[in-house]
Amino acid sequence: MQIKEDKNGQVTIFIIVAVVIIAIGVAAYFVYPKVKTTETFDSKNPSAFIQSCLESELRNNVELISSQGGSLNPGNYILYDNSKVEYLCYTNQDYQTCVMQQPLLKEHIESEIKNSIEVSAKDCFTSLVNSYEKIGENVNLEEGNTDVELIPKKIIVTFNKVLTLTDGNSERYENFKINLDNNLYELVSITDSILEWEARYGDADSSGYMDYYHWLKVEKEKRDDGSKIYILTDKDKGNKFQFASRSIVWPSGYGEVI
What we know:
Elements (H helix, E strand, L loop, with lengths): L1 H30 L14 H22 L9 E4 L2 E8 L8 E2 L4 H12 L1 H17 L4 E4 L3 E6 L2 E12 L5 E11 L2 H18 L4 H7 L3 E7 L4 E8 L5 E7 L12
Parallel strand pairs: 2-10
Antiparallel strand pairs: 1-2, 2-3, 4-6, 5-6, 6-7, 8-9, 9-10
């Protein structure tokens, strides 16, 4: 009888220990979701490590910037669908056409994307160096500039850093690139065209763009204060860019019978 009770007690202890281990594992998964493993680390392909490390955040930041008219922290904006949509052409005067707020829109967006990933990029390169050191490599990382380019159908981020391994045969890696499939370049080019119409004539014909670009959907939401919110959407990929304009606004009550 004593032997049977001892066995039952051991089984109970094993069950409790197993439950505790599972609970710790589950807690670690949810409490530390951003902890990165080295399972995908390939010592011969450090660029793939950086791509994997940063791609998700890059995509999320591009979506945020695109939903806000091209800025991380819009200054002059209107609220639309819980987003701060920046005015890219604006006037506060009645009867007047708007003035361009970001005349170099593409370059501005490239700068905003660069700033949005600066901290995470530093963390990713630190993780890369640590991964090499864990396998016994001597590592030297030379810092360099970061370039962001909007090109047709892609966004390319280039980190002009030089990574040198000096354990045994010396190896050198440079110009780490991240490629993101996104046609923000095309959406920004069409935005520039719409803004030219807004600045010159006070409005733009959204249907004309859809007739010419069959993959494109252009929506124009009008507000009581004369503001317009343009939403450009790639119907195939779902990529979106939205911005606001306020141009040639009639004063309140204009044309009413007194």
